[in-house]
Amino acid sequence: MNEKALRVLEYHKIKEEIKKYTQTSAAKEIIDKLKPYENIFEMKEHLEETEEAFKLLTKKGSAPFEGAYDARDGISRAGKGSTLMPVQLLKIANIQKCARRFKEYVAHNEEEESFPVIEDICEGIVPLRTLENAIFNAIIGEEEISDRASTALFNIRKSLRDKIASVKNKVNSLVRAYSNFLQENIYTIRGDRYVIPVKAEYKAQVPGLVHDQSSSGATLFIEPMGLVNLNNEIKEIMLKEKAEINRILEELSQKIYENIVLVENNAKIVYELDFIFAKAKYASEINAIRPGVNDNGIIDIVQGRHPLINPEQVVALDVYLGREFTSLVVTGPNTGGKTVTLKAVGLLELMAMSGILIPARENSTVSFFKEVFADIGDEQSIEQSLSTFSSHMTNIVHIMGKADSSSLVLFDELGAGTDPTEGAALAVSILENLRSRKTKLVATTHYSELKAYALKTEGVENASVEFDVETLRPTYRLLIGIPGKSNAFEISKRLGLPDYIIDEARKGISNDTLKFEDLIQTLQERSIKAEENARKSEMLKLEAEKFKEKYEEKLYSLNSAREKVISEGRREAKNIIAEAKEEADEILKNIRELERMGYSSETRAKLEKERMRLKESLDNVEENPYGDLQKHKGLASVKEGEEVYIPSLNMKGIVLSQPDSKGEVQIQAGIMKINVKLENLTKGKENNESNKELKKIRKREAKLNLRQVDSSIDLRGMDGEEAMYSVDKYLDEAYVAGLKSVTVIHGKGTGVLRNVITDMLKRHHHIKSYRLGNYGEGGAGVTVVELK
After folding, report:
1. Residue 124 is labelled as binding a ligand
2. Which residue, of 54, 341, 489, 543, has the greatest Cβ tally within 10 A?
3. In which band, very low, low, confident or very high, does the pLDDT at 705 lie, cut at 50, 70 and 90?
4. pLDDT at position 604, please?
5. Is 720 annotated as a binding residue?
6. Based on the domain organization, do 332 and 428 belong to the same domain?
7. Claim to verify: residue 361 and residue 474 sit in the same structural domain
């Protein structure tokens, strides 16, 4: 992406806004390096990850970034085998704790919504709980090691405390003994050794070592000989403490070194997540959405807002191009919002192409462009002796040399800064040349010649920024399909210019011209209303499809719940039958006991009869625990498309296939496909629409398959074996989905990956033919495959 467009569209300001929501400087550096992605696949994936982060923040609250620090310096040193300082160890432990907690944060059960992209990123996290605990147990603060870091350190510090207590007692006794020779009856410390302040004239009266003197020289700080050995012992213990602390730090650093790959990888993932969630927090702040994405040059932004303008003041705009027209010519008065509109379109495109959600309404659509060019603002240069016109033309020459069908070009005041006649002619020529290249273009202008050009040229449309004549102020609304009017007469009249002057001016313009302008305006107003209605209908259609998908999912959930209830009911029925059988057996046993006690033959015959009836009843219930649910006569044959009834599920379905070797047929029941034995089906209601329903099911399946399989696969970054496996699987899916032509993206590089794929394609049974990509398709970096 060219730097000039990023600069004039103020892309860097968006990045600065996102930085405010980061936790680590590493994430800020990722944002600094952020640029629009180079292909549509990355664009879609990064938009999806931002949307998933946005949903996670909404559903689960703040992400677990507490204690996340930039630990790259410490990790780098540990990777070289260096011993780390306590503060570096704490930062590493905190970043590992953050990584572990993030893995728990994104975890979900089957009923909850999944977040595949974020989950895939977190899949690389390997929790290092043992390492975390070792560091947190050993280090209390940035410069403080815990007594519990090791048994040896605990014993050393206990010994040091005891020794210091002994020294204090000794020094206090010496202070009392030498009190007549001291400046003050206190002791102090110089260089970790206990000393007393002796008057200079009495230094001979206090035998010991002089460590320091006061600034005036009147006081000497002397270590009495009675303290030398005790101070030496304290010094020795302190040296042992320091050595033990160094040993603990070396041991912890060594543990990090042993896990350096995992530690570094976990940290990188946390920094990446920090970057992603910063985008999500920014999206929440500006009330942004994830737009639809295409690579056909279609832009349809609904109620889009410039993200750098105060939300309370910004006016939303509807702008679209790429379907009926590829060029948009915007006219209107100065300060009417033309340049803001131009910048908003360019900036929203750059944001979406960088994986940043855009401030617009749902169902907005943006396109992937390989390049966005912008010629906006006055960049005249005194140093280079360039006028405004020369500066613009230098930039336009650069654009004309590179713009193609996959480019978006934004021109502000095209052709301005020179003679109006020549400027207008030049502007028309530039627009026509870019239109012939199918470049997507938005240009602002004051030239009426460009309005006429847009009216008579196919693929070019007029637009204007609205101006309220009553208030003499712009409304900043963009009206596509309506060319801007100068409104000179109306504005002059409102400002107090006499009517006779205005009437005289009107005479200078032919009636035909005035009528033609009014007619064009009327037609354009009707046209724009029709287009707005069409766009609203399209939006409503998309919303209806979303509702349909939502309720189909609910239906599936209800059917699953029904099956679960039926299954549980069957188990419960079996348990009840088993209990009843046990009870019946107990009754029969008691009957036999009664028979032994003696009854008449007639009574025994009746008991035997009841016993047999009870046994038959139990056997029947055991064989058919579902009662009337199974009382039907199975079908002998079925036809594809025939409606049948499944008593065990209490559902209707459409037959999709003839019985297989097991006597099972495939049934479409709601949104489910199930296999049911022929004998477990009954005749459904007669329905002449059943065959049509079957066709709809087949058609829906075909569309589903086509929608689920992309027309290309990207192998860049894979090794040979992984690439072969991925292509083989992809070709099978594409063949089943009915795709006729697919693209394998392997990159140019050394050509090794291309050769591996070519050898595989020679032997693949789904391949009709294959070739390297042509110009515009990716060249030698892709292989185009025709399927049988």
Report:
1. no
2. 341
3. very low
4. 61
5. no
6. yes
7. yes
**pLDDT value for 619:** 63
Note down the domain range covering 566: 541-625
493 is in an annotated binding site: no
Q: What is the DSSP string of 463-528?
A: EEEEEETTTTEEEEEEEET------HHHHHHHTT--HHHHHHHHHTS-HHHHHHHHHHHHHHHHHH
Query: Which secondary-structure segment (H or E) carries 212?
Result: strand 208-213
Dump strand ranges (E) for 45-180.
139-141, 144-145
CA distance 594 to 604: 10
332 in a labelled binding site = yes
Residue 747's region, left for phi above 0, alpha for psi from -120 to 50, else beta, is left
Q: Is 334 annotated as a binding residue?
A: yes
pLDDT in tens, 181-217: 777 777 788 877 888 888 887 777 778 788 888 877 7
Domain boundary among 576, 605, 625: 625
Q: Which residues share a beta bridge with 327?
A: 441, 460
439 φ, ψ (degrees, to nearest 5): -75, 135
- Selected residue with higher pLDDT from 697 and 561: 561
Q: What is the count of structural domains for the chain?
A: 6
- Residue 758 confidence class, pLDDT cut points 50, 70, 90: confident
Residue 376 per-residue DSSP state = -
Q: How far is CA 477 from the centre of its chain?
A: 31
Q: pLDDT tier at 522 (50, 70, 90 boundaries)?
A: low
Ligand-binding annotation for 336, yes or no, is yes
pLDDT tens digits for range 398-420: 888 888 889 999 988 887 767 67
Check if the beta carbon of residue 757 is closer than 8 Å to that of residue 722. no
According to the annotation, is 634 in a ligand binding site? no
Is 729 labeled as ligand-binding? Answer: no
Q: Tell me, yes or no, whether 3 lies in a domain.
A: no
The number of C-alpha atoms within 13 Å of 87 and in the hemisphere containing its C-beta is: 5
Of 719, 657, 645, nearest to 685 by C-alpha is 645
555 and 599 housed in the same domain: yes
Whether 136 is covered by a domain: the verdict is no
Residue 685's contacts (CB-CB under 8 Å, 6 or more residues apart) are 643, 652
On whether both 208 and 351 belong to a single domain, the answer is no
Q: Which residue has the tokens 């432990």?
A: 93
pTM of the predicted model as reported, rounded to 2 decimal places: 0.62
The predicted pLDDT at position 381 comes to 41
How does DSSP assign 543-564, residue by residue? Answer: HHHHHHHHHHHHHHHHHHHHHH
Q: Is residue 276 scored above 90 in pLDDT?
A: yes
- Residues 162 and 25 grouped into a single domain: no
E strands present in 428-494: 440-445, 460-468, 473-480
